[in-house]
Design brief:
This protein is mainly alpha-helical. Helix content is 55%, strand content 6%. The chain has three domains: 170 residues, no CATH class; 178 residues, P-loop containing nucleotide triphosphate hydrolases (Rossmann fold); 88 residues, Helicase, Ruva Protein, domain 3 (Orthogonal Bundle), CATH 1.10.8.60. The protein is globular.
Length: 490
């Protein structure tokens, strides 16, 4: 029996926009990128339970984007692959924050979100004119887990949403069930297919040499690169010793990254996750990046659950905790300590397939590690990320220009060198390193675009050329006193 929820991709997009716009009016439009990403992951998990995946699913996947967001570009092959890999539903961090905010304010935005999610997923389930029992079960699982967060957080009760099980039209096996690899003990073709599938999965792992080349291409960080090479050699030899039944002493592979913002800590962490996977230490090699807000909840007992969800998403890869010291800065009764204990337990329980990297300013990180004996014992490898000097900042800027098709004139090159030299020499405690370079690059693009837009018929060279004035803020008055000087004169 066909479902009544089937809509064309164009009609579905209008429905999606109407639902998300209504949510943003009571929530926040700033959630749009995260919400679209979460909805896409739900769609992939849903369709892994569908009877089949075809071009119709691709058309619908390309309609999952909020107003003012970029339209995705799914193709059948990568949508099918992604659906096969999407097997665990994880409540997003923004939903925890939403529920906690509702509990404080007495509002019900998180409950509204659950009803919206149910509606959208029912439309997505009906894309092939059929809602399977497995699909309805998946939608129910999603809504039940989100509802449990609302209940335990203390969000007030509201009217119930639709029951997905009421809309089942068939009991056809799911896509994943249909395509499970079969093993035949008699040595048939299915056994060979399974072996080929395993070999293909192994081949998809990051190339160690390519990742090391990417590491070498990073500006500066010479000591960090040296430390990583030493660590990789150490791990390789350990695995060789294990293969030859030789004893290997216990060793922690968890890391501490110390340094100011913008010094490449996240970039190096992402490369490290791939390197660990390439040499067989981790099974997947993904990087999951969080800070305190992604781990700590506002109510007793909720932080452990929230942290466990993040840990699940990081299994097989690296959990990167930025500004980790904030977890221990709130005193003995702060919920951050609950997050620390949960992470320490996970590091012990899953030491064979989970790496944790903590990062932050040097001083606070030293205090953080000394705040808990478990932290000191598990984190004994420290990587120090120094500030970029003027020459290195300029190298990063040149790289940004080259990658994005901009060419500095000789005069602009000199002006940029002088600017970044001065930026480094006069840096304050808020110096952003690579982030400051990125901000300067983006400001340059705006000024250059304003200049070129005033031309009658700009050439390709005009579109690419960066002049000295594109690096200067036209609103700056060189003769005006600095703010400190102005205060003194008053």
């Amino acid at each position: 029996m066909p479902t009544t929820w089937n809509r064309s991709p164009e009609e579905f997009h209008k429905i999606y926009i109407a639902n998300t716009d209504a949510f943003y009016r009571i929530g926040s439009a700033a959630l749009a990128p995260e919400l679209d990403s979460f909805m896409t992951k739900c769609a992939l998990g849903l369709w892994s339970r569908a009877g089949n995946i075809n071009e119709r699913h691709v058309e619908m996947a390309n309609q999952i984007y909020s107003r003012s967001q970029s339209q995705p570009k799914w193709l059948l092959w990568n949508l099918t692959s992604a659906a096969c890999e999407e097997d665990v539903f994880l409540p997003p961090v923004f939903f925890w924050n939403l529920a906690e905010s509702d509990a404080r304010r007495g509002s019900e935005t998180s409950r509204t979100f659950i009803r919206m999610l149910t509606n959208i997923l029912l439309y997505l389930a009906a894309v092939d004119d059929d809602v399977t029992y497995s699909e309805a079960e998946y939608i129910t699982e999603c809504t039940d887990r989100l509802t449990a967060i609302c209940d335990t957080t203390g969000v007030r009760k509201t009217r119930d949403g639709l029951n997905p099980l009421d809309f089942v039209t068939s009991g056809e096996p799911s896509f994943q069930d249909k395509h499970k690899p079969q093993v035949q003990t008699s040595g048939g073709g299915e056994k060979k297919k399974e072996e080929e599938s395993a070999a293909a999965a192994e081949a998809e792992k990051p190339s160690f040499d390519e990742l090391m080349d990417q590491l070498e291409d990073l500006v500066g960080l010479e000591e960090v690169k040296k430390d990583i090479k030493n660590l990789m050699n150490l791990v390789k030899v350990r695995k060789l010793r294990e293969a030859h039944d030789l004893p290997v002493p216990p060793m922690s592979l968890h890391l501490v990254f110390m340094g100011n913002p913008g010094t490449g800590k996240t970039t190096v962490a992402r490369l490290m996750s791939g390197l660990y996977a390439a040499i067989g230490v981790l099974s997947k090699g993904q990087l999951v990046e969080v800070d305190r807000s992604g781990l700590v909840a506002g109510y007793v007992g909720q932080t452990a659950l929230k942290t466990q969800e993040v840990i699940k998403s990081a299994m097989g890869g690296v959990l990167f905790i930025d500004e980790a010291y904030s977890l221990s800065s709130g005193g003995e009764n702060d919920f951050g300590r609950e997050a620390i204990e949960t992470i320490l337990k996970a590091m012990e329980d899953h030491r064979d397939d989970l790496i944790v990297i903590v990062a932050g300013y040097t001083g606070p990180m030293e205090q953080f590690l000394s705040s808990n004996p478990g932290l000191e014992s598990r984190f004994n490898k420290y990587f120090f990320f120094p500030d970029y000097n003027g020459e290195q900042l300029m190298a990063i800027f040149r790289s940004q220009c080259k990658k994005n098709g901009y060419v500095l004139t000789e005069e602009a090159e000199k002006a940029a060198v002088a600017f970044f030299t001065q930026l480094y020499e006069e840096r304050s405690d808020n110096f952003g390193n690579g982030r400051d370079v990125r901000n300067c690059f983006e400001d340059m693009i705006v000024r250059q675009s304003n200049r070129v837009a005033a031309m009658e018929d700009p050439s390709k060279e005009d579109l690419m050329a960066v002049l000295p004035e594109d690096l200067e803020d036209p609103g700056e008055d060189e003769d005006a006193p600095a703010p400190e000087e102005a205060v003194e004169k008053e």
